[in-house]
Fold this protein.
Amino acid sequence: MTRGKLVLKNLTRKKTRFLFTVLGISVGIASLVTLLSLGTGLEAEVRKQSQELGAELVVTPKGWCAYEQISVLTGETLPEAIPNADVEKVASIKGITAIPYLVQRTAIKNQPVTVVGILPEPMKQFKNWQVEKGEYRLDRESLVVGFSIAKQFELKTGDKLTIRGTEFLLSGILKEMGNRDDLVIYLDLTTAQKLYGVGDKVSFIAVKVDDITRIEQYSQEIQERANVAVVSDKQLIKSVMAIVGTVRNTLQMIAAVAVLAAAFGIINTMLTAIHERKREIGILQALGGKRRTIFFLFLYESALYGIVGGVVGLIAGFAFSFFAAPYIQQSEFTAFLGSAQTVEIFNLAVIGQAMLFSVLVACLAGIYPAWQASRLSPVEAISYE
Amino acid sequence: MNLQRFSSICLIFLIALSFATAAFAFTAPKAEGLDVDTVYSDPFAYKGEIKVRGAVAGLESEKNWFLVIDYREYVACQGTSCPAKWITVSVSGKLPESGKVVEIKGVIEKDETGKGGFVLKASEVKVK
């Protein structure tokens, strides 16, 4: 009988015990997988939306909470708090392009629509926009709209749109960009500021830097010159994680308790198995089995618990992430990222991490019982009744 | 106590712990409707009856008004203290309790005494 067959036979000898031990580690790994799936999915979503914004840094008013920082990406209404003087100070820094945004909302046919006040020409260059229909004219009387908005509400150039009681001419429809830009009505910044009564203030400034390796220096310089805060996409991810901290903490706690309980379960199972198989160990020793061989036989058994438990945990974790987690996180995640899929299923990194962790825990838990088995004396082992 | 019984107890304990912690972690009830910040930006763009969701941040019982803040901000801040914008809601019946999540059906009416120069005249207030 080969070592592999022997290990398998020993494991499945007591089926109920095997099942409960595997279940123990599966619960822990399932919690871990759910935790990792939520995290990676969310990070990917925030990164994607950051890239769509086209900026390496976002300049926000000081003291903005995580919700407001995330709203920069989602196009929600934002408080207007950066005065024009600060916009000019930021824009004057060499090596950066600063694009101010005033984000507000209106409604077409009772459906909420995002309105963004922009500097027409710099924004067109920054986003590399092209006009699908009509002309790119933004002034006191005209506006342009994104591709999807025009399609959704069947808008044509020459139509009249009323925003906060003022009528505007729809001068142009932008070409499809495949991102949130398609869902926005664009107004000239000054006109939007007057219309929404916000003085000379903007919501935030998107910053593109010429030299990405100097991003930290740019960030510092912006904060030294103007009374603002600077947020990078990494910080945005941190903000989301801070908001959803309750979910993560709960899952972390469940994962930690479950993995710890599973480790003790493996130790217990293995010690019982050694006690039951003392005679068998003695025979192995009498047949010339070395201490090292016995040690590794029991360690392999333990590792196999980790592998089986890891696989079951992965399946359970992904199933839970896919079906249940979106409902659990409804109030926490979707409030910030719309209907975006915030759970990444079948992520290779998650699979790798979870399996490695499962096998590692099982091996660590198996060291002590395997060591106990290997140091039994042949006489003591073979004479055990 | 044998191993199987011990394992079963551990498993039941873990499942119970999961449910208990989950129950304590997610306290904001689910609500549907337009968001307060969205409506506040351009209230008169909404014609006829609309449904708004939010959290009750204050009561003005002498006018039979209550103030409602953005649901998402309520969730993010885990309370009603941080938002700077709110909608004034006028009701004919009983006022909801402060701090409760509500869904309001009603129409926007011009009223200079309301925040932003308007009130949401409610025909139905559902406490979640």
